[in-house]
Design a protein that fits this description.
alpha+beta; Phosphoribosyl-aminoimidazole Synthetase, Chain A, domain 2; seven-stranded mixed beta sheet; five-stranded mixed beta sheet
């Protein structure tokens, strides 16, 4: 709505009472099963709308599909997306498909909202508590899946995480009232937190020991399962990052790990933090971790302790 703060979705103000909020996201398969791929693509696309505290209205499919693959695979992808949209309470009313060398799937998702009720990533305040709603390591695990070294239990766990809608976390945060939110996706926790601190004119402190991490992530890092964007993100924000001596390179790679359909990163006034945790728990949110807080810092430094 007239600003460029790297928010999760575009918001176009029609008048004082109405804004259109819209996003698009799509990607190549993160798992082998086409139905789950469809679910993940839909959940990831919907997440941008939820991060801004909005309720989705409808979706359009965006598909790239190789000519040589059986159409039954495309049917499964679209069914997975449709069922996740149904869980979100919205219809899929159309879309567009092109021939492509590799399958790609995602959605355009549209919402409407009152401009005054849209949550941005530029409204964090010093003293806010930072809450994260899914563990880190999804990018590392999906890299291990592509290299065929992840076990079935690990695969099932990460699919469960990626197909969990952020709808329920968004409902909790809008009920309680929070200051700022973003979803943690391709830029990793550090990258998306950097967007918040830069846009809000504040700094942040996070505690490594309180960061939820998928257990197998460290093992796979040691086996070289590191997405290329982990290091790219760390290079991008290196001037804004201060780490204690006990923070290892492995820790940093986890903090910068790109998440597909990751959780919400919420900043909430300290007086409301416990109410938010309770509301998140009541909504069945998989992870509720207080990982740090927003601090006063004109240079927007992120400190990892």
């Amino acid at each position: 709505m007239g600003s460029n703060t790297a928010d999760d979705a575009a918001a176009y103000k029609i008048n004082d009472d109405l804004a259109v909020v819209q996003t698009i996201d799509y990607f190549t398969p993160t798992v082998d099963d086409p139905y789950h791929f469809g679910e993940i693509g839909a959940a990831n696309s919907l997440s941008d709308i939820y991060a801004m505290g909005c309720k989705p209205l409808f979706a359009l499919n965006v598909v790239g599909f190789p000519a040589g693959l059986p159409m039954s695979i495309l049917t499964e992808i679209l069914q997975g997306g449709a069922n996740k949209a149904k869980e979100a309470g919205i219809p899929v009313i159309g879309g567009h498909t092109i021939e492509d060398k590799e399958p790609k799937y995602g959605m355009v998702v549209t919402a409407i909202a009152k401009p005054s009720e849209i949550i941005t990533n530029a409204s964090a305040r010093a003293g806010d508590v930072l809450i994260l709603t899914k563990p880190l390591g999804i990018g590392i695990i999906t890299t291990a899946i592509k290299k065929e070294i992840a076990g079935q239990e690990t695969i099932d766990n990460v699919i469960r995480l990626m197909t969990t809608l952020n709808k329920y976390a968004a409902e909790a945060m809008t009920e309680v009232g929070i200051n700022c939110c973003t979803d943690v996706t391709g830029f990793g926790l550090l990258g998306h937190l950097h967007e918040i601190t830069e846009a809000s004119g504040v700094g942040a402190e996070i505690r490594m020991n309180d960061i939820p991490i998928i257990p197998e992530s460290r093992e796979f890092i040691r086996k070289g399962m590191i997405p290329g964007t982990n290091k790219t993100t760390l290079e991008f924000i290196q001037d804004k990052l201060e780490c204690d001596a006990n923070i290892s390179e492995e820790d940093k790679l986890i903090l910068a790990d790109p998440q597909t359909s990751g959780g919400l990163l919420i900043t909430v006034d300290e007086s409301k933090a416990e109410r938010l945790k309770t509301a998140l728990q009541e909504k069945g949110v998989p992870v509720i971790s207080e990982i740090g807080r927003i601090i006063e810092d004109k240079n927007s430094i992120i400190r990892v302790r």
